[in-house]
Amino acid sequence: MRVILAIEIAYDKNWNYLWIETDSKWASMAFKSHNIVPWKLKNRWQNCVVKLESMHFMITRIYREGNHCVDKLANFVVCLWNDI
């Protein structure tokens, strides 16, 4: 869900470049195989895939041990999103 929110926020802000770094193996694999996306998220995921076509996009996977900064930033964004 955090990857979806990041893509939606970046698109709404007209950011043309997006680099998502995640520790989730499933989130990074979802770009290769859309079939692993849970059905509850499928519609939003497909909308994000379309949005990414107009952006320069990259996703990388980092192991949890090296992901402290990204984790804090993601939690901050989710808190901001919930306040809107």
Q: Layout of SSEs?
A:
Elements: H1 2-12, E1 17-22, H2 25-29, H3 42-52, E2 56-61, H4 68-83
Parallel strand pairs: 1-2
> End-to-end span in angstroms?
17 Å
**Number of helical regions:** 4
The unreliable regions are: none
Write out the strand line-up for the largest beta sheet, numbering strands in chain order.
1-2
Estimated radius of gyration: 13 Å
Which overall shape is indicated by the principal axes computed on the Cα atoms? globular
Q: Which structural class fits the helix and strand makeup?
A: alpha+beta
SSE topology string: HEHHEH
Domains, number: 1
If you average the pLDDT, what whole number results?
83
Largest sheet report:
2 strands, parallel
Fraction of residues in β-strands: 5-15%
Give the helix proportion (percent range): 40-55%
Please provide a brief summary of the model:
This protein has 84 residues and is an alpha+beta fold. It has one domain. Helices cover 51% and strands 14% of the residues.
Q: Could you explain the architecture of this structure?
A:
Helix 1 packs across helix 3. The chain is globular, with a radius of gyration of 13 Å. It has 84 residues and is of the alpha+beta class. Helices cover 51% and strands 14% of the residues. The protein has helices at residues 2-12, 25-29, 42-52, 68-83; strands at 17-22, 56-61. It has one domain. It has a two-stranded parallel sheet.
